[in-house]
Structures are given as C-alpha cells and as structure tokens.
Amino acid sequence: MAIPVILVTGFLGAGKTTLINHLLSAADGRRLAAVVNDFGAINIDADLIAGAADGVVSLANGCICCSLQGDLLRTLGRLMRRDPPPDGIIIETSGVSDPAEIVTSLLDPVIWREAALEAVIALADARALTDKPDLLDDALCRAQIAAADIVALNKADLVTPDELVRARALLAALRPARVIFDVTEGRIAPELAFAGEPQAPREPGQAGRAHGFSTPRFETMSWTADAPLSLPRFQAAIGKLSPHLVRAKGFVAFREQAGRPLLFQLVGERATLGPAPAGRDGAPLVRLVLIAENGKLDADATRAMLEACIEREV
C-alpha cells in the first residue's frame, strides 16, 4: 500500500510549520514523517525526543522529522526504506516556492505506487490578507492557493468577523469556498489531511461521526459493494456528490477494468484513480468512505446514487 503524502505550502509566515507541529502532535497513533526546511522551526519538546541520528529526529509518539537536504525524491526514498516505514509523510515547501513542480513529481505513476499524494494544503494568513488585500496579486501567492486541494485560512482569531469574510472572499476568487477552512494556530482538523482507511460500516450507507475525529464538525459515511461498478456511472455519481464532500477515499473495481483494484481519492476538486493492492480475503470488493461537514450529506440519497453504479449480473 502506498504511503500517503501531504504537501503543505503557503505564504511566508502564514503558519506552515505551526500546522505541521499540530499534525505531528495529533498523530493519533500514526507514525508520521515530516520533511521540513528548517529543524529549528519545529517545536519539539526535549521530553518528547526519543533519539536523533542521520539527520532524523525521532519522537516518542513514533513520528519523526527530517531536514530536506538535496533531492526531495531521494529523501522520500530514504524515509520509505525505514523499518517500520511511516504511515504518512508531510512535506513542507518553502514559502517562496511554487508547489506545482513538486505536485507534478508526486503524481508520476512510478512514485504514486510508493508515495501517493493525498492532499495539498495551502496556508493563507487572514491578518496579512486584511492588511494587504492586494497580496493575491502576487503570482507566487496565487500559484500556491491555486495548487491547493484545501486552503487553511490561518490566524482567523486575529481579525474581526467582517475582515474574515472579506479574506475568505479573496481566496474564493481562486478556490471554491467549500475547500476554505478557518483555523487558529494552524490547528486544522487532522481528518482533512489524512482521510484514513475506508472501513466497512456497521450498517451500509449509515452516516455518523467518524472514528477518531478530533472535532464534531465533520461526519463520515462508509459504503461497500461486493460487485464491480460501472466506471461512467461512478464518475457521474462522484460529479454530483463532490460539491457536498470534503474528502472521499476508498478501493474500487470497475467492470471495464476487471481484476484491477484501484485506489480512489477525492480531495477538494482533485479526483484520482491509482493502483491499489489486492483486497483482503473476505473484504468487500468496493470500500468507500465519504467525509463532509455535518448536515451536508444525505445518507439515503447518497447510498442510492452509489448503488446505482453497481453492475448487476443478468
């Protein structure tokens, strides 16, 4: 199974490192690896350090930090060869870099099999956007926001409600409002980063709060099927559902590609299909988890829409 990768980009001083600190501290049992530009900016309490060697700082909760030195892909390869390998990798880009080239590299099919890009999170600074509304006239800032699947509008506590509305409107001119989330001190909900593995629901199609979520703001719906799906019907269903979703992830199989399990991911407006390992013995052929803000997902209608994608034997 490919290791999920989160790419963190955004304005200089917007809070990228603070967000990474938050994800590492809220790992919830995951062994995360953070590739950062500057160790000194990572707030690692000495009591949490389990050891340091070869440019890697190990934390007591199983997470590690390493400094980005030289080629990023070489650094990723070194991380993936660790024993045990990390459950997820977070990459911090420089505040003066366009993430497009890194995104292109991570979407290469060869790399995707080992390290699959899960989401691109861009940090925007609500205070800076309020003080300098023309900030997004800068081509680099626009490129960082345009590359994002999720935009975290940080420092929301440092502006008035009216200023926050105006800052969101500036960002919404570049990205849909539904992928913009107000945060304070980089505390993005971890489920927006790592969606987790799809699990069979207690009752197929039942919506409810996702296990392990740190906030009641989101709910999950799991759905399974034991028969392959129609690819055109699935694409049409996801097209209708995506405006209501924050994330979706799962294993799918299609009649048109018999015997080839695929990993499906939807985050923001980006949907991908990539190679997936063979299903576990006894596991449903299709396993999906959908994540939405509370009240945005009609479980019955969604289940009916997905079940209409199943290719029935005649």
UniProtKB/TrEMBL annotation:
InterPro entries: CobW-likC_sf, CobW-like_C, CobW/HypB/UreG_nucleotide-bd, P-loop_NTPase, Zinc-reg_GTPase_activator. Keywords: Chaperone, Hydrolase, Nucleotide-binding. One of its GO terms (cellular component) is cytoplasm. GO terms for molecular function: hydrolase activity; nucleotide binding. Residues 218-310 form the CobW C-terminal domain. It catalyses: GTP + H2O = GDP + phosphate + H(+). The keyword Acetylation does not apply. The keyword Chaperone applies. SUPFAM superfamilies: Hypothetical protein YjiA, C-terminal domain, P-loop containing nucleoside triphosphate hydrolases. Gene3D superfamilies: CobW-like, C-terminal domain, P-loop containing nucleotide triphosphate hydrolases. Belongs to the SIMIBI class G3E GTPase family. ZNG1 subfamily. Zinc chaperone that directly transfers zinc cofactor to target proteins, thereby activating them. Zinc is transferred from the CXCC motif in the GTPase domain to the zinc binding site in target proteins in a process requiring GTP hydrolysis. PANTHER family: COBW DOMAIN-CONTAINING PROTEIN, COBW-RELATED. This is GTP-binding protein. It comes from Phreatobacter stygius.
